[in-house]
Amino acid sequence: MINAAIAAGHEATAATAAEILKAGGNAFDAAIAALMTTFIAEPCMSSAGAGAFANVFTANGEALLFDFFCQTPSRKRPVSEVDFYPIEVDFGDTREVFHIGRGSSAVPGMIAGIFALHKRFATLPLSVLAQPAIQQAKEGVPVNAFQYFDLSLLESILRVAPEATPIFFAKGPLAAVGEPIRMPGLADFLDHLAREGRAAFYQGEIAQKIVRNYRENGGYLTMDDFRNYEVIVRQPLHFRHGTSHILTNPLPSTGGSLLALACAFSPSPEKGQSPYGLRHLQQLQQVFEQVDHLGKRPRELAQHLRRFYQHSPKGLQLLPEHNKKWGSTSHFNIVDRHGNAISLSMTIGEGCGYFIEGTDMQMNNMLGEAALLPDGFHSWTLNTRLSSMMTPTIILDAEEQVDMVMGSGGASRIPSAIFQVLHYLRSYGLSVEEAVEAARVHLEHGVFNVEQGFEASMAETPIGQELREWSGRSMFFGGVHTIAKERGRYRAAGDSRRDGVGVEGEP
Fold first, then answer.
1. Which member of 13, 16, 37, 329 is catalytic?
2. Phi and psi based region of residue 487 (left: phi greater than 0; alpha: psi -120 to 50; beta: remaining)
3. How many CA atoms does the CB half-sphere of 452 hold within 13 Å?
4. Are the C-beta atoms of 60 and 164 separated by less than 8 Å?
5. Higher pLDDT, 90 or 242
6. In degrees, to the nearest 5, what angle opens at C-alpha 10 toward C-alphas 40 and 180?
7. Alpha helices in 1-109 (DSSP H)
8. d(Cα 433, Cα 107) in Å, to the nearest integer?
9. Is 254 an active-site residue?
10. pTM here?
């Protein structure tokens, strides 16, 4: 047995996981409880109306990827009847338009995923695992700086729903840093789920409430959509990187494949080379130029992976091309003292502005972003699992024991952010905290973004792209919460860019 470790996006999420581990639960018990806590602690990223991916590795060597992301509806209705409209979000230096309304919601998979994980791996009753979230929903979780930033960005969406007022605007203005937000409806909802089971959400009163409201007010979702939703258990994408075995999110989601391609181009440091110097910056630029040149469509990625790896990575199945979604994302990792590990990423998008009656839970807006539908809004394929850039990742050592667990929020920046932390750990031998906090880059749309923290400037040399050198650290470059083994002990680091938290337990 070795020590347990947790890396999460909020201290309440991490505290819940630690509480369950101390009570004798395994990593999967802790993950289920932590995931329910994200509903109250991280409401901009997580909800019962959202979706997620869980990468699982058990102490006996079983590796599985649980896809409980959102599914497109099985029917369409005339666009003239659909509740679907733009809303502008102010990012300070820029403004961006998102689309919300009931017509922007896909079928949520979050609750199905909780029950699937519980049935397969849990050792404690769901009623026990729900208690920390129930208690926090009643007592309240203080808003931290990162959550306040996100809530501020999405305030115009939150103010659409009257149900959001007592939660986030109890005193009129948005709840300030340090003020608690409470969700009594969530407490009742979780208690009901623990007693009644999965059917309470997908077949019973909850689904009926959503379907009735959506039918009357311009949504797509039907009872068939809820009844037919299933968690998909996939084989993870499994490839070798040096002596490591990397397990990550497979196609049709694209983030894991982009991570694998970045690893294929991974540069080796020259003798005496600094990770913060100009030469390393140039190498990182070359890596991401090569990856960017290959494209991001699933069929292309599958072909390139077969080309760059001598043996086709396991889990590399050429599946039908799916729509992709880039949204507001959070992540956590847990390793227990027995060697079980889980890496879990979740998103609600930006939220659609509709809260499920009596639950304090907002529904997703996965069908409401232009990047999702290059052929135009409402062009989505019926009854199809959405894809994602989310890349929950587990790394095994040469003996196929858990060595690292990591993942990130950050939309299209997720694979590059994870690659860079892995690169700092593997190629430069940085500690987990140093690797997580080290400066990052990102190349997208012909712009090479360089985070503050490098000793040199790319302005010293021609780079072939527009250069943007950031004046500080930013959530733009992800939030790579990470667990890594150092000298036989797991160390945990939460990324400060997104107020991450690392917790380490005793053996």
1. 329
2. left
3. 7
4. no
5. 242
6. 45
7. 11-22, 27-41
8. 37
9. no
10. 0.94
